[in-house]
Specification:
2 copies of one chain form a homodimer. Chain A has a single domain, classed as Metallo-beta-lactamase, Chain A, CATH 3.60.15.10. Chain A is globular and about 50 Å long. By secondary structure, chain A is of the alpha/beta class. The longest helix of chain A has 14 residues. Chain A is built from 7 helices and 14 strands.
Chain lengths: 269, 269
C-alpha cells in the first residue's frame, strides 16, 4: 500500500529562516495522521494544500512548545472550516489541562468534538487501532516525558495454497523525536520500513547534544542501522547548523539510505 | 524622524497559501513595538531577520486567536535567546489569565520578566509613554472588546525667534483592527500620518462584512479620507479573496494614498 509523509516543520526549538517547529502528516491506508504540532503547522498545511478531511488523529510526542504550540490554532481553524468529525489527540495528560481553558475561551462554538487521550510516554503500549493500522508508543529519553510512535500496518491475506486467511503485519513508520541516543529502542524498531529519527546536532556538538538530551545525525543513523530500517529520515535540525547537507553527510557515513526532512517535502515510505 | 512598519502577517482568521494571521513591527524613535501576535509571528520575525533587541512592548488589540496565538511561542523563543530586558504586554486582562499557566509550564526558567498591563479596550486612554512616544487606545467595534492603538511622537523643539522650548506632537501611526466601519474613530485619528485599517472584505461581501463586524476596503478608505490621513495601509484580508489588487483598487477609488499590507513588506510611515 502506498504511504507517504509530508514534512510541515523540521526545525528544533528555535525557528530559523529555513526551519519551523516540528510537525508532519503521515498518510497511510487512506487515513491521515498528524504527528506533533509546533507553531505554524496549520499554516504550513494550508500553504501546502494538505488535505485534512481524513485527519482524525493527532499524536504529540511531548509537551515542549516546539511540538505542541500549534494545536490551539489548528483546532480553531478546523472549527472555522466547519469540521464535523471528532479530532482525537493522543498526548501526555497535561496537554488537556493546558488546552481546555483556551478551548473554552477561544473555541466555545466548535462544530466538532476534540477528544483527548492521555498516554503514558514512559511505557510501550498500543494507543490506537483501526482495521488496518495500529500505533504503539516508543519510550524515548528526553528532558520531559517523551515517546515516539510506531505505525504498524495490518493486511488480511489469503494463503494461495491452503486458502487460509492470516494477517500480514508491517512496521511501516516510526517517529522518534526528541530523544538522546538510546539503543534500547532498537529491538522495538527492528525491521521498520521508514524511521524518522531526530538529528538535532552533528558530531562537533556532541557535548551540547548530551546536555540537551538530543541526538546527532550519526547517532540517528546508528539507530537506523542497528534496527535494519529500510530508510531513515532525519530532522529537528538545530539553528546552529545552517547547512543541512552536514547532517546528511554525517548520517550517510553510517546509513546510506538517509534522506533529509525539508519543509514541504513529501517522502514516500 | 524615520519610522517604518514591517508586516509579519496580513491575513484574517483563516490562514491561506499567502496570508498568515496578524502581526506587525513598528519601528519609531529607535524603539520597536510589536502590534498583535498571531500564530507564526515569531517565525516570520526570524525568517525576515527582524531585530528584537529594542522590542520591549507588545500591544494586543483583542483576544481572537489570529491576534494572540503566537504570543506563547514568541515569549518562549525570547527565553531561548537569553533575553534579559522585560517584555511588556498590553492587552485585555483575560490574556494574562490564559497565558500564565502556559508560562508556568513551558517557560518556568525564563531569563527575563513578562509584565502584563491590563487595558480596557472600550475606553480611550494613554496606556504607554516614554520620552518621545505615547500610545493611546482607540476603541473599536468588533465581536469582542477590541481597541486600536494610536502612536504619538513627541519632540522637544526650540523656537528660533524666542528661544523657547516646546513640544511638537505628531499622530504618527494608528493601527485599527479588527473593526466594523465606525465614524466615531475619525476625530481621534484626525491628521494621522499613517493609518493601518483592516479591510477584511470588498464590496461584494458587504452582508458578511456586517455580520462578522469587519470592514471593506472601501470603508477603510472612507475612514482614512475623513480622518485626512497621510497614508492608508490595508490588511487582514479574508481567505475568500485571493487577489489582493481587488482590495487595493476598491480602496484607491476613495483614497489614493493606499498601500497593501503584504507579508515581509516594510512600509515607511
Amino acid at each position: 500500500m502506498e504511504g507517504k509523509v509530508t514534512i510541515l516543520g523540521c526545525g528544533s526549538a528555535m525557528p530559523t529562516w529555513q526551519n519551523s517547529p516540528s510537525g508532519q502528516v503521515l498518510e497511510l491506508c487512506d487515513k491521515s495522521f498528524l504527528i506533533d504540532c509546533g507553531e505554524g503547522v496549520q499554516i504550513a498545511m494550508r500553504r501546502l494544500g494538505v488535505r485534512t478531511a481524513h485527519l482524525y488523529s493527532v499524536f504529540i510526542s511531548h509537551l515542549h512548545g516546539d511540538h505542541c504550540f500549534g494545536l490551539i490554532g489548528l483546532i480553531s481553524t478546523f472549527g472555522m472550516m466547519h469540521r464535523t468529525q471528532p479530532l482525537h489527540i493522543y498526548a501526555h495528560a497535561d496537554l488537556e489541562k493546558l488546552l481546555r481553558p483556551w478551548l473554552e475561551y477561544h473555541c466555545a462554538d466548535l462544530t466538532y468534538e476534540v477528544i483527548f487521550h492521555a498516554i503514558n510516554p514512559r511505557k510501550k503500549a498500543v494507543i490506537y487501532e483501526d482495521r488496518t493500522i495500529s500505533v504503539e508508543t516508543v519510550p524515548l529519553k528526553h528532558k520531559v516525558p517523551t515517546c515516539g510512535f510506531l505505525f504498524y500496518e495490518h493486511h488480511r491475506r489469503q494463503d494461495a495454497q491452503t486458502g487460509e486467511f492470516f494477517y500480514e503485519t508491517t512496521k511501516r513508520y516510526a517517529y522518534c523525536s526528541d530523544t538522546m541516543y538510546n539503543e534500547r529502542m532498537v529491538e522495538q524498531l527492528e525491521g521498520v520500513k521508514t524511521l524518522y529519527h531526530e538529528a538535532t546536532y552533528i558530531d562537533e556538538h556532541l557535548t551540547r547534544c548530551k546536555g540537551t538530551m538530543h541526538s546527532t545525525a550519526r547517532q540517528a543513523a546508528m539507530i537506523a542501522s542497528r534496527a535494519q530500517a529500510g530508510q531513515l529520515i532525519i530532522g529537528h535540525f538545530s539553528a546552529r547548523v545552517d547547512d543541512h547537507e552536514l547532517f546528511l553527510n554525517e548520517a550517510q557515513e553510517v546509513f546510506a539510505a538517509t534522506v533529509l526532512a525539508e519543509e514541504g517535502k513529501t517522502i514516500s515510505i
